[in-house]
Sequence to fold (446 residues):
Amino acid sequence: MMSLGGQASDTPKNGGLSRIQERNRSLILDAALSEFSRKGFSGATVERIAAEAGMSKSNLLYYFSSKEAIYKATLAHILEVWLAPLKTLDPGGEPARELAAYIRQKIEMSATFPEASRLFANEVMQGAPQILPILEGDLRRLVSEKSRVIQDWIDAGKMRQVDPVQLIFMIWATTQHYADFSIQIKALTGKDLSDPVFFEETENSITTLILNGVGLTAPGNDD
Amino acid sequence: MMSLGGQASDTPKNGGLSRIQERNRSLILDAALSEFSRKGFSGATVERIAAEAGMSKSNLLYYFSSKEAIYKATLAHILEVWLAPLKTLDPGGEPARELAAYIRQKIEMSATFPEASRLFANEVMQGAPQILPILEGDLRRLVSEKSRVIQDWIDAGKMRQVDPVQLIFMIWATTQHYADFSIQIKALTGKDLSDPVFFEETENSITTLILNGVGLTAPGNDD
DNA sequence: TTGCATCTTGACCATTTGGTCAAATTACAC
DNA sequence: GTGTAATTTGACCAAATGGTCAAGATGCAA
Fold:
C-alpha cells in the first residue's frame, strides 16, 4: 500500500476499529471525496464535509485531527484504486488485447469514480504537495516497469515504434479527460460517461484511435 | 470577443485607460493568472495577488471591485487566446497538414501558457461556474463548425471514420495534459515541455499517434 | 505654482473557518 | 444495573481574508 507520509497515524491498527469508527470514517471519507473533488482543498470546508457525513464538525475532528489529515486520508484511499489498472498490463498477453483492456479499465474508472479523478487532477495541478513522493517513487517505478513491457512488444515487432512513456501519458490523458472535463463535455455534447451509449462510443473512439495509432487493430469482443 | 456576463463593466471603453491604469491592470492580471492557476479561486488571496503585482491590496481593489471580478477578467483575458487555434482549422487544407498544425499549436500553447491551461482546467473542474455559458454557446458552435469540416474530410475519403467531436476531445486531452499535469510528467520523466528536446518528442508522439489513428501520415516538415 | 482628478495606502471591520475544550450522552463489558 | 471508555456536541477562540473608507500622495493641465 502506498503510504502518505504522516508520522501520527490517523488509522491505528486497521483491525482495531469499532463498528462506529468504521462506519463514521467511511462516511467522512465519502463526504470528503465529494467535497474536495468539487471545491479543491482550499475551497472545501470541514463544516460542509461534516454536514454531508451527517455529524458535527467537532465529531469529525474527533476522527481526523485536521482538515489536512482528512485530505491525506482521502487521497490515500483513492490513490491505490486509481492507479491499479496499469498493474494489470500483462507482459505475456497480446499488445492489442492488453492495451484495449487497460483503456477500458481506465474509462470505466472515469465513469465510475469521476470524483476521484478530479481530486487527483486537482492535487497534481496544485503541485502535488501531498503525493509528489509517491509520483517520484512507486508510480515512477511502476511506469518504468510497464514501459519495459511495451518496449518489449515493440522490439518483438508486435507494434509500431512509439515512446512507451508517452503512450501511457496519452492513455491517461484521453481517458481521464472525460472525468475531469465532464462539465465541458456535457456542455458540448449534452452527454457524459454515465450515458451507456456515450460510454461505448467513447471507449470505441479512444481504443480505435490509440490502437491504430500504434499499428494495431482492436481485438474481437469475445469475452 | 467572448464576454463574461457581468453588467458592471470593469473595463470601461478600452481606449479610455490612462498609462497608469493600463500598466497596473496588466500587472494585476499577470499576477492573478499566476496565483489563480496555482491555488485555484478559493485558495488564491487578494493580498498575494496584490503583492505579486507590486501594490497594496487596497490599490488592487481600486482597479477591480472584487476578487471575483479579478478572476473573471483573468479568465476572459486568457480564454480567447486559449481557444483560438481551433479556429484556424482550414476546410480547404489537407487533413494531415491541418490536424498536425492544430496539434502543434495546442502543444505550443501548453508549453508557453501552462498557467492558462491550468486555470482553465481548474475552472471547468469546479463546474465552470463562470464560463459555462461560453462553453454552451460560442465554444459549442465553434466545435460544431469544425466537426463539420472533419466530417467532410471523412466523407471525401480523406481520412478514416471517426467521431469528429471525439477526435477534438482527444487532441485537447493529450495536448493540455502536458500543461495541467506537468508536475506529474516531471516527476516521471524528469522533463517538461520547457525542454526543447522533450517538446519535440512529445509533439512527434502525439501527432504520429493521432494521425495514424485516423489513417493519415504525418506531413513533411517543408515549411 | 495652483487646483483638481487620479492614484495609493494603512487602519479598520465583518465574516468565515480551522481547531480546542469541557461537558453531556451513549455504547458496552461485567 | 453499574461504571468506564468511547462518542458527540455546542460554545468558544484565534487567524485569515475580502472588502470599506477616509486621508494622504501623486500626476497633470492651466
About this structure: The first helix of chain A runs from residue 19 to 43.
